[in-house]
Write a structure and sequence with these properties.
This protein is of the alpha/beta class and 257 residues long. Helices cover 26% and strands 21% of the residues. It is built from 7 helices and 12 strands. β11 (207-212), α7 (218-225) and β12 form a beta-alpha-beta unit. The longest helix is centred in the N-terminal third of the chain and has 22 residues, at 19-40. The structure holds 6-phosphogluconic acid (6PG). GO terms for molecular function: 6-phosphogluconolactonase activity.
Amino acid sequence: MAEVTADNGKGKVKVFDSEEEVAVGLAKYTADISNKITNEKSSFTVVLSGGSLIHSLRKLVEAPYIDSIEWGKWHVFWVDERVVPKDHVDSNYKLAYDGFLSKVPIPPGQVYAINDALSAEGAADDYETCLKHLVTNGVLHVSAKTGFPKFDLMLLGMGPDGHVASLFPGHPLVKENKKWVTFIKDSPKPPPERITFTFPVINSSAYIAMVVVGAGKAPVIEATLGKSPNSEVLPVGMVSPEDEMTWFFDKQAASKI
Ligand SMILES: O=C(O)[C@H](O)[C@@H](O)[C@H](O)[C@H](O)COP(=O)(O)O
């Protein structure tokens, strides 16, 4: 496997020959962090995005990880969710359930889906309240540095415009600095109504893996990590977790850096 790892000051950068190799590397990375955290604590809090990331998690449900990971300690969250019913084709919950969660023995009570009976605003408030309960009962910890929840691991993707979660370039939500979870009704990527974690929550997490594949995303990666980064900082360029950032690229996505 041709994997090149470098540190460019914005985190570890792993470049693989193909998306298939990215999936292999991502499974090993996720399993290693899971083992580290589950050896130390009774819960491992993992945040998923939607999009192509879920397909890239496919190796995690295979040997050896399916048997070696302590799935019973996993607690699963979404960095963003579309305000649609959970069985809707646009639902990030459905995407993750069909491609990942239905294949691993995580207790269903530890999978925190959006309340799909509520409005966007109501669902965002409800999700934030759920997170606060989990802080109270010790499943989720709070960052000593920021006071925002500190998730153990976020597995994220990036859109071709440089958005992460439902935080889009130039949108005022990018600057939200009080709420943990907020909502958007004019998302440029359909569907328009979504809820999303805010940057203070994203950046309070311990580990973040940013998984980016395909030539279509190379210009944004160049603008963010290249030798002369753009002066306009895109949302993806604002991602900066407390402990460790790791970028996973295939050759195409990394072709301009
Ligand atoms: O729209 C969503 O629901 C997302 O959670 C979003 O943030 C996603 O991760 C990126 O858009 C990348 O998606 P792709 O990898 O499919 O481009």
